[in-house]
């Protein structure tokens, strides 16, 4: 799999999973690509998991710290479509 090197690196720090709180807006990154925007619904840092409500679909998603990187959202507020 080739990476698109023309895209700028995201220099924002990854969110600290131990500090995530319900209501925080986050971007879900996998392989340096944003896969979801959402709002933290529940955080379980001791399990390495967080649940978000996807801004596009409203679906609740469980995410694993081993599989994704979370960053605080760039946009003011993700909206449901």
Describe this structure in words.
By secondary structure, this protein is mainly β. Helix content is 0%, strand content 41%. It starts with 24 loop residues before the first strand and ends in a 9-residue tail after the last strand. The N terminus and C terminus are likely disordered.
Quick overview:
With 81 residues, the chain is mostly beta strands. Helix content is 0%, strand content 41%. Residues 1-8 and 77-81 have low confidence and may be disordered.
Comma- or semicolon-separated keywords:
81 residues; mainly beta; 5-stranded antiparallel beta sheet; disordered N terminus; disordered C terminus
Q: Provide the gyration radius in Å.
A: 13 Å
Residue-averaged pLDDT: 82
Unreliable residue runs: 1-8, 77-81
Strand order of the largest sheet: 4-3-2-1-5
Estimated share of beta-strand residues: 35-45%
Structural classification: mainly beta
Number of helices, where a helix is a run of at least 4 consecutive DSSP H or I residues: 0
């Amino acid at each position: 799999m080739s990476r698109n090197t023309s895209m700028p690196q995201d220099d924002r720090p990854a969110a600290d999973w131990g500090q995530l709180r319900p209501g925080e807006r986050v971007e879900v990154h996998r392989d340096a690509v944003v896969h979801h925007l959402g709002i933290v619904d529940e955080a379980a840092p001791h399990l390495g998991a967080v649940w978000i409500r996807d801004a596009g679909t409203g679906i609740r998603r469980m995410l694993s710290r081993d599989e994704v990187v979370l960053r605080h959202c760039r946009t003011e507020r993700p909206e449901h479509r």
